[in-house]
# Entry
Amino acid sequence: MIDKKLYDMPLHTDIAWCPACGNFPILTIVKHALAELDIAPQEAVICSGIGQAAKTPHYLRVNYFNGLHGRALPPAIGIKNANPKLTVIAESGDGDTYGEGGNHFLHTIRRNPDITNIVHNNMIYGLTKGQASPTSEKGLKNPLQPNGVVVEPFNPVAVALAAGATFVARAFAADIAQSKEIVKAAILHKGYALVDIFQPCVVFNKQNTYQWFKEHTYSLDETYDKMDKMKAMELAFDQEKFALGVIYQETGRPTYETLVREGEEPLFLRKQNNAEMFQQLLQSFK
# Structure
């Protein structure tokens, strides 16, 4: 197993998260998952958009692409297409992924690329000081809606299942051991894998706290059939008590890379000119 310290940034690295932020355990979860899967830092790429969660790859010694708000998934697909041998992770917050990036979320699921999509779900916009996000609970008071959110929250698990995701899981950042195993399973899955991680924002969301998540979640037991899609949908629509674990997994469906390219050789190693390589990349997105 690779030494986890290989992923560590220097001790003086300035981490711009609040003390007790739920992003800290997710940083640990991702680092430990990669190390335990024996994935070297140079063999992994993390893509992110904009937001507090999107800063995660800044604090890992790993290849990363930090893009525009809501645009973590398109470069992740492109990188995986260019070099299928890489472990590619798209990692951002609930606002970045389900709000600004909602269109990319849906169509990435349709393509089924072999990437892991980790979403830090704190049910609030943390970077821009506490506005309601797509997953904010109805009634949550915030600076823009002082009387409370009036619409129903976006349900990422149900939407992912309905759109045809081949791996859908939910985790809680405070349970590092369970979340690490879920992330490892997602990375090993051949196809698109969504891991929605509840991550408390201790400053701007005083409603969905660590204690709240503990009281409103439970872990799926070993008897649960993760290949039963109808049962998975039933769990997805339970908004009173949230199931944690691998909610659904389908194996055997072709990945996007196998449909649009031949072999796993990185494009930069192919004996063809730059124009041909560019045209191949363009074709892969049609």
About this structure: The CA atoms of residues 18 and 203 lie 8 Å apart.
